[in-house]
Amino acid sequence: MTKGIILLSGGLDSLVALGYSKDKYGICLALTFDYGQKSAHKEIESSAEISSYYGIEHRVIKLDWLREITKTALVSDNAVPTENLGTKESAQAVWVPNRNGLFLNIAAAFADSYGLDYIIFGANKDEGATFPDNTEEFRNQISKVFETSTLKKPKVIAPLINYGKDDIVKIAMDNEIPLNMVRSCYNSGEKHCGVCESCKHLKNALIANHGEKYISILFEK
Ligand SMILES: [Zn+2]
């Protein structure tokens, strides 16, 4: 039987990537990264709950230095954008340098050491249009690198790469993935703020799928 590790932020994409492909890839370990992002506390809480729900091991990796070398609004005192969303500027404001490259390399170290065959992450079509580290090209290239940088040669899998947010919410509903546990907001509030880019994408996708009950659970009134 094969085994896999997943990058789990607790957001929509990583939650659904886990629920959708846990059995196929034998996912047994989740990594959540704390680089001082505003929502770190909530992401860790949500990821722990999701990992427990799926009965997999959960580890939190601290990367304090990453906060120091980035000016992204995800960690700094700058507010995360709530206007002109979907533009290059709004994407740059939340860009963390080489984030997925770094996270996947750390996961590859675990895979190499623990003998895991697959590394799963939640790259998807919508974010691939804005962020280069969410594309099929990136997935393919980094998977190739692990053929020479590790002994175990884990394959990098992005099960949602051809899907946008609306499709991803539909997959969640069709597969009874617990959307009530999701944490997609860039901000630190108890509930989803509803105005950051990530919240807007989630909200729109829930509306498109008649998921209003989740909106009342997840979002500030
Ligand atoms: Zn938000």
The helix content is 40-55%
What class, by secondary structure content?
A: alpha/beta
User: Could you say which small molecules are bound to this protein?
Assistant: zinc ion
Q: Given the C-alpha coordinates, what overall shape results? A: globular
Strand adjacency order, main sheet: 3-2-1-4-5
Tally of separate helices: 10
Can you characterise this structure?
With 221 residues, the chain is α/β, with parallel strands linked by helices. It has one domain (4-218): Rossmann fold, CATH 3.40.50. It has ten helices and five strands. Strands 3-2-1-4-5 form a five-stranded parallel beta sheet, with helices on both faces. Strand 2 (27-34), helix 2 and strand 3 (57-62) form a beta-alpha-beta unit. Helix 1 crosses helix 8 (165-174). The termini are far apart. The model has no long low-confidence stretch (mean pLDDT 92). Bound molecules: zinc ion. Residues 185-187, 192-193, 196, 198-199 line the site of zinc ion (ZN).
Task: Summarize the SSE layout with pairings.
Blueprint: E1 4-7, H1 12-25, E2 27-34, H2 40-54, E3 57-62, H3 64-68, H4 88-93, H5 99-114, E4 118-120, H6 125-128, H7 136-149, E5 155-157, H8 165-174, H9 197-208, H10 212-218
Parallel strand pairs: 1-2, 1-4, 2-3, 4-5
Helix pairs in contact: 1-8, 8-9
Bound molecules: zinc ion.
